[in-house]
Amino acid sequence: MHEPLRLRGRRAAPARAVVQHADRSRRSGSSTGPRLECELAQQTQARASRSLTALSLQDSVGPSRGATGVRGDGGPTAPAVSPRRQQRYDTMKRLMKGLVLCFACAFAGSAAAQSWQLVWSDEFNGSIGPSWAFETGNGSGGWGNNERQYYRRENAGIENNALVITARRQDFNGFRYTSARMKTQGLRNVRYGKIEARMRLPSFMGAWPAFWMLGANLPQVGWPDSGEIDIMEHINNENRSYGTIHWRDHNGNYAQYGGNTAVGVADWHVYSVEWDANAIRWYVDGNKFHEANIQNNINGTEEFHRDFFVLLNFAIGGNWPGFNIDESKLPAKMHVDYVRVYRRQ
Questions:
Q1: Of 109 and 304, which is predicted with more confidence?
Q2: Does the active-site annotation cover 228?
Q3: What keywords would UniProt list here (predicted)?
Q4: Among 72, 75, 105, 316, which residue's beta carbon has the most beta carbons within 10 A?
């Protein structure tokens, strides 16, 4: 297999035309559609209510032309309302109810359209599922990144119904560290959907855990032509998560675009992307922090309209995190509660 040269040490200038700007406010990742429809319903109801109020005020100012009345106790009677005015009033009430119902139905329909159907998951309840294959060794040039670890199946296991990848200070086959890297290549592919994992990450100098995807056509076309979607990367002792895409652009050049957000990586968090034919959006705990536009293959992003497979790994050192490795923190563990893949209902 051609090993992907991930080139993380030097982050190229982003292809600005490819992306929609990251949402710096970390809003909720839900669509604005239902919220907009709700606002429209409220505005419509308010306008109808104002019209009803105006009609009511017109009626309360005084009786119809020439209409007067006296109660038996000598007090004035309620103003008389003409049949025509009453008909207008009743019609407006029915219109208001109908409009509110219409917008309520639209809101419910849009909310339902945002729901996800689970198509595959590994909950790691007692064992690692059959959809994973394990890499062995150090790849080509440290997996293209000068990583310092040797990957072994023995460094992945289950603890308390969670996957645990353990990086160790262990001399093995000429390398100073061991860890694990696993993938769904040839077993599970995904094209579009929501891909997420709940994780608790190590944090120390030299740490580089990742949850990411590569194009299923990697063996045929190589990297970066296959495309790469990094759902979560974390380096060293930063409290930060990175999300990035890598591809070969329409000019035949390597390109990447990434965003990041602050997060306490030592705690449990859900890291995810929502991916469709228009865009890839990155989230932590449901809060969007980055978005890339891939609509109509803009700037050569056709790679991101094909099948991908999922990877989990815990690298030690490399071009991006550097080579100042705090060995006092080893062994160190990357915890994964689950990996889940959804599609739109």
A1: 304
A2: yes
A3: Glycosidase, Hydrolase, Membrane, Transmembrane, Transmembrane helix
A4: 316
